[in-house]
C-alpha cells in the first residue's frame, strides 16, 4: 500500500466546514493525517464492483420476496408489507448506500464484506472532507474517485423522473417537498442529514429539516412538521430500529404508505440489502463469484471465518475464527438477539499494524471511495482516511 502523510486540518477549520465529530472519545483524531494512493485501474475496479454488486443485490432481493425468505434475513414481521410495497412501486426510490470491501489494492482480490444500504454514515467525510484534505495539502483535489455530491444530486431528481434521464426534472417537478430528519444530539447524523438536504435543495426540491421527535405522522394524511405536509420523509433512522424500538411508529408509517400519503427514504426494501444474512443468499445465487466470499447460516467447516449479527453496526457483534474454530478477535455486542451469518475470512489491506477498509458509495451508480483505518475489527474508533489517484 502507498500511504502518503498529510498535514492535518486543524479542528477549528474542520468545524468551520461542518465536521464537529473530529475527536474520538479516547481523544485521538478521527481524520487520519494521511492518504491512500491508488491507481486508476484500482479506482475503476471499485467503480465496476459497486455497479455489478448492486444488480446482484436487486436479483437477490427479488428472490427473497418470491420465496418469502424474510425470516431467514431476520426481517421484523411488521416491516414485510412495507418492504413488498416499496419493492413493487417504483416511486420508492433508493437514494444511496455504501459497500464495504476487503482487498482491492496491491493485487489483493476485491471482496464484498457487506452493503450498508439503509442509513450509511461516512458520507460527509467521503464527499467533502477528503476533498478538503487534498486541497489543504496543495494536492489536486480532483484526483480522486469522488463525485458523490453530483451523483446524489442526480439521484434526488430521479425520485421524480424515475429513470436514468433527469433532464425533464424541472418540467415534471410540481413542488413536492422533502422533510429531512434524524435523532437529536448526534452531530454526525445531523450533519449527514443536513448535507443531504443541501444536495436535494440544490437539485431543485423544496426542503426542511426537523428532529424525528418533532415530526407528526398521520396514517391517512402523511408526514407533517409545523403544520406543513411533506410528500417525502428522509429519516436517518434504521428501519429495524423503527420496527423494534418504535412499533407504533412502524405501524403509522405502514398506514401512510398504504394510503399513498407519503414516501420514505431510504425505502423499506433497503432493509433486505442491509441484512448481513443476505450474504448467504448472494452466495447461493452466485456461487464462487469473484466479488463474493463464501457465506452460510451455519459455521463453515475448516475455514477461517467471520461471524456477524444480521444488523450489527460499527463492528459490534463481530467474531473472527481461525481454521480450527478458535476465536482470534471479537467485539462485544448489543445485537445478541440477532441471527448470525458466517462469512469466509479475507485478508484486509494492511500497512504496518493497521488495516485499511475501502468503502464505495452508491447512488444509482458507484460514486465515491473512502477508507477506514483500524484494528482487525473496525469499530467506532476507526479513523477516516482520504485517497488520491496517482
From TrEMBL:
<protein>
    <submittedName>
        <fullName>Glutathionylspermidine synthase family protein</fullName>
    </submittedName>
</protein>
Amino acid at each position: 500500500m502507498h500511504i502518503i502523510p498529510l498535514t492535518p486540518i486543524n479542528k477549528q477549520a474542520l468545524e468551520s466546514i461542518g465536521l464537529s465529530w473530529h475527536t474520538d472519545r479516547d481523544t485521538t483524531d478521527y481524520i487520519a493525517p494521511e492518504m491512500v494512493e491508488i491507481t486508476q485501474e484500482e479506482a475503476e475496479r471499485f467503480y465496476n464492483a459497486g455497479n455489478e454488486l448492486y444488480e446482484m443485490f436487486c436479483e437477490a432481493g427479488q428472490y427473497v420476496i418470491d420465496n418469502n425468505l424474510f425470516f431467514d434475513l431476520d426481517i421484523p414481521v411488521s416491516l414485510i408489507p412495507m418492504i413488498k410495497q416499496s419493492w413493487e412501486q417504483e416511486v420508492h426510490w433508493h437514494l444511496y448506500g455504501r459497500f464495504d470491501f476487503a482487498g482491492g489494492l496491491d493485487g489483493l482480490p476485491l471482496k464484498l464484506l457487506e452493503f450498508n444500504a439503509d442509513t450509511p454514515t461516512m458520507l460527509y467525510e467521503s464527499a467533502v472532507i477528503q476533498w478538503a484534505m487534498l486541497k489543504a495539502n496543495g494536492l489536486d483535489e480532483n484526483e480522486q474517485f469522488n463525485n458523490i455530491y453530483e451523483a446524489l444530486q442526480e439521484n434526488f431528481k430521479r425520485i421524480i423522473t424515475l429513470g436514468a434521464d433527469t433532464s425533464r426534472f424541472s418540467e415534471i417537478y410540481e413542488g413536492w417537498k422533502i422533510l429531512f430528519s434524524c435523532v437529536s444530539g448526534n452531530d454526525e447524523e445531523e450533519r449527514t442529514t443536513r448535507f443531504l438536504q443541501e444536495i436535494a435543495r440544490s437539485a431543485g426540491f423544496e426542503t426542511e429539516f426537523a428532529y424525528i421527535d418533532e415530526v407528526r405522522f398521520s396514517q391517512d394524511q402523511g408526514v407533517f412538521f409545523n403544520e406543513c405536509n411533506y410528500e417525502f420523509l428522509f429519516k436517518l433512522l434504521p428501519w429495524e430500529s423503527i420496527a423494534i424500538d418504535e412499533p407504533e411508529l412502524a405501524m403509522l408509517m405502514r398506514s401512510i404508505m398504504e394510503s399513498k400519503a407519503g414516501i420514505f427514504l431510504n425505502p423499506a426494501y433497503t432493509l433486505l440489502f442491509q441484512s448481513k444474512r443476505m450474504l448467504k443468499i448472494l452466495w447461493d445465487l452466485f456461487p464462487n463469484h469473484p466479488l463474493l466470499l463464501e457465506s452460510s447460516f451455519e459455521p463453515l467447516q475448516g475455514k477461517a471465518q467471520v461471524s456477524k449479527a444480521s444488523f450489527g453496526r460499527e463492528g459490534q457483534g463481530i467474531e473472527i475464527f481461525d481454521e480450527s474454530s478458535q476465536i482470534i478477535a471479537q467485539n462485544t455486542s448489543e445485537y445478541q438477539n440477532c441471527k448470525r451469518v458466517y462469512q469466509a475470512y479475507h485478508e484486509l489491506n494492511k500497512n504496518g499494524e493497521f488495516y485499511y477498509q475501502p468503502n464505495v458509495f452508491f447512488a444509482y451508480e458507484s460514486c465515491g471511495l473512502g477508507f477506514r483505518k483500524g484494528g482487525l475489527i473496525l469499530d467506532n474508533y476507526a479513523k477516516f482516511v482520504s485517497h488520491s489517484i496517482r
